[in-house]
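Task 17 of the worksheet. Students: predict the tertiary structure of the chain below and write it out as C-alpha cells. Keep your answer in the requested format; marks are given for formatting as well as content.
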Amino acid sequence: MTRIVVDAMGSDNYPTPDVEGAVMAARDYGVEVILVGDESKIKPVLDSVNGANLPIRIVHAPEMLTMHDKGEDLVMKARHKDAQNSMAKGLDLVKNGEADAFVTAGNTGAAMVTSLFRLGRIRGVDRPALAPPFPTAKGFVIILDIGANPDCKPENLQQFGIMGSVYAERVRGVKNPRVGLISNGEEAGKGSELVKGAFPLLETAGLNFVGNVEGKEVFGGNVDVAVTDGFTGNVLLKSTEAVAKLIVEKIRESIKGGNLPTKIGGALVRPALGAIKKMLDPSEEGAAPLLGVNGLVFIGHGRSDALAIKNAVRVAKEAAESKVLDAMKSAIEESLKK
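Model answer:
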C-alpha cells in the first residue's frame, strides 16, 4: 500500500482541512496516510470524522514552521537533525523509506528549504522547481518554475525541461511531451539572454523540444511542458489566477444585473460555468510537485480545503506508483553524459 505523509499543521486552518482531506483520501484511494503534527490537535479532528478504522496513523511533531520563519532561523529549524517541526519529521519519514511521498499546504519557502536539507537534490540538478499544471484549450500544461528560483541560469532551464517532460509523461500520461521555452517571440534568437542561452541546451537535451512559445501558444495547448524562470512563472501564475477569477465574476455580475432574458440565459448556462469554475479551481489538483529534490514532495495553497488535500494525496499517490522519481534520476543522468 502506498504511504503518503500529510503535514497536518500545513494549511491556514490547520488541522481540520488537512485531517479531513487525509481521511477522504484514505477512504477513496486505498492509501496509508501518516498525519504529522501536534497529536493533541489532530486526534480530536480525526475522531470527529470517524477516521479510527482507516489506514491512518499519527506521528507527533510538537512544533511547526510558519510564514514568520525566515533566514537563519528557518535554516536552523529545517536542517537540525533533531528538528521537531511537522515538515522536518514528515520529510524524514520519506528520506528513511517509511513513506513514499510528502504533502503539505504550509509555507512554500519553508517546505522548499526543509526539503533541500532533509532530502537533498537529485544528482545533476542544481535547483528544484515547482511545477503545477495549468488549464489550456486542449487540456493541461506543466509550467516550471513558478516561484522557487527567481533568478536562473540556462542550465537550470534545461534541467527544468527534462524533469517536466518526465513528470508529464509518467504522472500526467502524456506520450512524448512537447516542451516549449516561454519567450516574447516564437523565433529562435528572441527573448532575454537567459532564454537565448537556454534554447540550444534544450534543443540538444533529447526532448521533444518545439522551440520558443508565447503565452498564446502555452494556453492554446500547443505544448505539454513550458519552461521558464521562477520570476516569470510566478507572475504568470498570479496573473492567470486573477484574470480567471475576474472573468468568472464579471459574467456572474452581468447575469445578475441583466434583464429577464439574460437571467434565464444565465440559468441555462450555469452548468457550463460550473464546469469552467471546476477546471480553474486549484483544489482539483491539490498541490504542485517540487521537482529536483531526492524525494516526492507536493506543496499546496495555504488556503487549501479538505478537497484540495484529498486531491494532493491522489497526485502524490500517482507519482509514487509511476516511479517518476527513478525515471527523473535516469533522465538527468543521461543528460550529464552528453
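Marker's comment: The chain has two domains: 3-129+285-322, 131-234+331-337. The radius of gyration is 21 Å.
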